[in-house]
Amino acid sequence: MKYLKYIKKADLFGVNYKPKLTIDDNEQQSLIGGCVTIALYSICFAYFLYVVVQWQIGRILPGTSSISKVQDYQEFTFNHTDLFEFSYWRYNNDLLDPFDPQNIIILPLAIVFVNGSPVKTINLLTNQTQISGVYNARLIKMEQLKLVQNVNAQIKQNETPIQEVLLILVQCDEQYLYAGQQCSSQSDFEKFWEQAVQYISFWVNLNQFNIYTKSIEVVKKQIYIAIEKTQNINGQFIFKPVQLTSDDGFIFEEINQSNFLSDVSILTITTSLNFFKKILGLQTYFSIFLRVDPIVQEVQVTYPKLGQILAEVGSISSTLLMIRYLIFKINEKLLEKRLIKRIVKIYYPNIGIKRDRYLIQKNFQDKAKSKLIITNIIKEINKIQRFIEYRYGLSALTQSQLDFRQMNGKIKSLIYKQDEFSVHNLRSYTP
Hints:
By secondary structure, the chain is α+β, with helices and mostly antiparallel strands. It has helices at 2-9, 31-56, 186-193, 277-280, 306-320, 324-347, 357-371, 374-392, 394-428; strands at residues 63-70, 73-78, 84-88, 99-100, 103-104, 106-114, 117-123, 131-132, 137-138, 140-141, 145-150, 163-171, 199-210, 215-226, 232-247, 255-271, 284-292, 295-302. A hairpin with a 4-residue loop joins strand 8 and strand 9.
């Protein structure tokens, strides 16, 4: 039983006894307080619905953080998507398309480098190359592209080698052609370089994370590069990798991770036509290395959870409900006036409210307030006790206390017998 007492004391839902002001009321409440309460809770509930709807449709922005770090190893493989595509800027239909498989003027080649050494050369101009609707020219793509960046590849053995791709544009050479393809004549070759502008338009397919749809979308970045007959444009396409970690759990964590290339930096210089001649045996008009940057941007996206939404609604609601302090003060003043009025009527019944209103407020308000203090209440009870003792004697007062205790005991006994009678009737009852 001793432990049960301690468990009982741990109850957080205990209530205090509130003496009633009247038979029906135990609190001072007012019409203005009821109106303000309904208005405040209506606003809070409407705001709660608004926030929940915005949360469900993804209009509440998530928390994001981003840091940059050096990643030793990264690998990106493009089997079903193209990292880039390019075509000749054919601004006039009378211009020659240098990538026409039946009349090739410039041949696009991709050379795969492994740890700095060329291992494979690929002709990107296939017989299935389609004509782009943008410039009415052949659109060149590179399929089955793989880029590997490994800082330790040249230091440690048994490491995955670095793999990069060199994209070059050279004068047509029959040793790299597929069946059914042929190089252009010398006259078409000269005619092409006599055209006003020789622009190659690149479309780099990058990725960006859409925070609203929670998906990775493709973004095309267009780059224009001019080529000339007398010099080679050499440079690098350095792709910026991103490691994304997103948490879109409803209550608990639900982690999703993905890696993609989000941007590209371009570095170019001008060199002679014979820059790669010792490696390829050909004059190059354009050469660009495709590499992955070792500096990775690590992005963390955390979507709001149910607890955060409730906390946000709670903070706004708490701010709005600060108005209730004003209503408390109003009800407190109304209760005080109500009690003062009753006390004045009890102690001064012969004073008229209308005729002596000013007199009541000025002369009797402080006296009425003093009657509400607990010490004064005890003092008034003490006066009554002394009066009874003086009028009827101490024995009468003692006897009245004994009679009250006996009456209280009889009431408890009667309640106990009534409970036993009810239990007995319940047990003997058979339906």
